TrEMBL record:
The keyword Nucleus applies. This is BTB domain-containing protein. Gene3D superfamilies: Potassium Channel Kv1.1, Chain A. GO terms for biological process: regulation of transcription by RNA polymerase II. InterPro entries: BTB/POZ_dom, Dros_DevTransReg, SKP1/BTB/POZ_sf. It is found in: Nucleus. Pfam families: BTB. GO terms for cellular component: nucleus.
Length: 181
């Protein structure tokens, strides 16, 4: 390090970033991802998802597009919403009855800091089951039994068409949908 270097430290940086995440949880500004789960849409931020979930991080790195529409199948909306609360705010409140399905969703999405929800023997047996499912699957990409069937840049018109398609539930995926099941 040279003697002429200056180091400037932002006091309270961690608190500031944490506060920004909390604010963004319920603001629509800068949202660049739509999650679709159990017939409901959740607008969120790619940066947050990628920083908290290895699954989302891999998806966004593999498909570096401006906007994503991700269809989550096999997930409960309440679990996804709780996980987003945790990612944005660093905490969540839930009942004891919600814990088993939330643990499964957290494991499947590889949510950081929630690994301690599952004990080691449970985690090992679930990972082995996921590996078996992954090996037997013939799809393009699988992540812990999460299937990504296609992706691409989603223009506003394509996004509106994809949303209409998702609302019909029975229709097949469009070219720009991501399917996580």
């Amino acid at each position: 390090m040279c003697d002429n270097n200056v180091i400037i430290v932002w006091n309270g940086f961690t608190e500031h970033v944490s506060g920004v995440f909390r604010t963004f949880r319920h603001e629509t500004a800068l949202q660049d991802v739509i999650l679709y789960c159990e017939g409901q849409f959740i607008n969120t931020h790619k940066l947050l998802l990628a920083s908290c979930s290895e699954v989302f991080r891999r998806i966004f790195l593999e498909r570096a597009n401006a906007y994503h529409l991700i269809r989550l199948t096999g997930f409960r909306y309440v679990d996804v919403s709780l996980l987003l609360d945790f990612m944005y705010e660093g905490e969540m409140a839930l009942s004891q009855e919600q814990l088993p399905s939330l643990k499964q969703a957290a494991l499947r999405l590889e949510i950081k800091s929630l690994a301690n929800l599952v004990t080691s023997p449970e985690r090992e047996s679930e990972q082995k089951a996921d590996e078996q499912d992954t090996l037997s699957s013939a799809t393009e990409t699988t992540d812990n039994n999460l299937e990504v069937t296609s992706a691409g840049y989603v223009s506003p018109l394509e996004l509106m068409a994809a949303v209409a398609t998702l609302q019909q539930e029975e229709s097949p995926l469009q070219n720009n949908d991501l399917l996580l099941s």
